[in-house]
Amino acid sequence: MVAETLRRLSPEKRRESIARLTAEQRHVLEKHLMATPQRDAKVHKEFQNRLDRGDQSLQRAERNGRTRGQKCSLKVIKSKLKAVERPRPKEPKHRGLYPKGLSQKSIRGLSYYYASVGCESTIFHCKPVRSRAVALGHLATLQRLKSLCVSGSGSFEQRLVAAVETLRKDSPFSIEQIKVFVRSATQHWLGRDLHTPSWQLNQLDEVLHARRLLQVARGHVIVGGCGLLYQCSIAEAAELWVRIREAYLEVCASVPGCDVQKRALTLDRAEAAFAQHRNRMQTMVERRQRRHAEKEERKVQATQRHLQREMIRGQKAANQVERRDHRALRSLEKLLQRW
Prior knowledge:
By secondary structure, the chain is an alpha+beta fold. The chain has helices at residues 2-8, 11-20, 23-35, 45-64, 68-85, 132-151, 156-170, 187-190, 204-218, 234-253, 260-273, 275-338, and strands at 102-107, 110-119, 122-126, 178-184, 194-195, 199-200.
């Protein structure tokens, strides 16, 4: 009885109770424990029933011919076979005729080719020509200019100046035939990129000044399409467009012969034409943000409820252990008094 009562106690209470025993009582208790065989752990009936139900479902699946995992693996294999059997889309026939950077346009029914290459928001392009071979030569020159800008050291402005000087010395191609303009990502407001007026390549001071103005207007936001509203709010996006518009019109005013009023009217028309799509995107973003906020709030509430349940469960368990130890100690004291 004493050994059974000690088993019901918590480890701390058990050690305190054993310390109260005399040497003779401990000796007798050790002999009793050594003579008593250890009982096998009993499996809980509910857990055993679950195991039985699992075995029955497994046997039923084996009788049907396949287990659930085998059925899933067969589905995956069939889908892969279908993907292999599916014919690949044919490549366009004109893919080899127009490499990246070479474009074609029609002017008065005649086909013209022109080359253009971009590098860090600056676009280099040549005038359209009738000969495709000449346009390919322009493209090779522009690609070499881009490689010099990328491979150099220092800031972009320093690399661009050094690349232009290198190209002027080495290339037989005339630098004056290359024009450059600055691109700004404005798909969110206009549905397309915004391009400044073009300058000749020897007018690098004007090009770099326009690039600096647009970069200062943009700030830390470097995208202008669908990802814009993930980096700033709707109000910040509206303020950003006002700054970009002012910087763009300032750049246009610095170019001789550029009609600033006509450019401003073109921006207004493009902004009005794209307003419906922009409003739809803003509504989608607002809905997504509202759902995300509601989800976070529900997660916080669920965490709080879980912590409260864990606290109550811990208090109940502590009270239960305390009551059990109290009853066991009372029983142990009575047994020791009779021993």
